[in-house]
Amino acid sequence: MTYATTPDGTRIAYQLRGEGPVLVLLAGQANNHHWWDAVRADFHPARSTLTLDYRGTGDSDKPDTPHSTELFAEDVVAVLDHLGIDRADVYGTSMGGRVAQQLAARHPHRVGALVLGCTSPGGPHGVERGDDVRRALAGPPEAARQALLELMYTPRWLAGHPGPHHTLGDPGMPAHSRRRHRAASDRHDAWELLPRIGAPTLVLHGTDDRLNPTANAALLADRIPHARLHLIPGARHAYFEEARDHAGPLVLDLLTTATPHRP
Length: 263
What we know:
By secondary structure, the protein is α/β, with parallel strands linked by helices.
């Protein structure tokens, strides 16, 4: 296992695969790098891929200290510094998209092209999931897991893909880390930062996403200068996996055609 150490002494496990310019892939809340297992090779014709285990997940340290999307972004910077990578493209989905917003706004010189998938600006401007979704996810463990599975994927896709599914959370996380991740995602508010993003940006979202409502995509695209918006018909939260043949080429097109961001 390979690690980078953050300024506060936390070890962050990372995984670098493939060859060529680096694409950083950022996973959803309470998930480790396996979130990307099904699709990361789709990017290897054009990019190497760099994933990491957020603090609290996978093989990274799991301190019981406050977490935030800003802190997760600084952890990404620590990994890039450790590897000697001055600039990378970044693709974040769900909470990873929130982390990517912080990274691109606070460290614009480190981000080439930016893809924000199934994510939200957070704060009072973000569109929250419905109370019915909240109740379903707060139910008994097995029922909550099934509810999450159906928020991630369509029934048709699940019928042909019985699993295992790597987007339902890191099973090895301690309870304190799950709480810390939930708080970090809930407290995210990048609204005032979004206009500072200068990277060429693509916003992707499934039209049937109820876990992170689709209306958030337009908010991000309108707030980030010159961002492009693409909605994937019928897709739910894990559009990047279920609709990989649709989403993957859109991402590769941005990565291979985008002009450098403004200073």
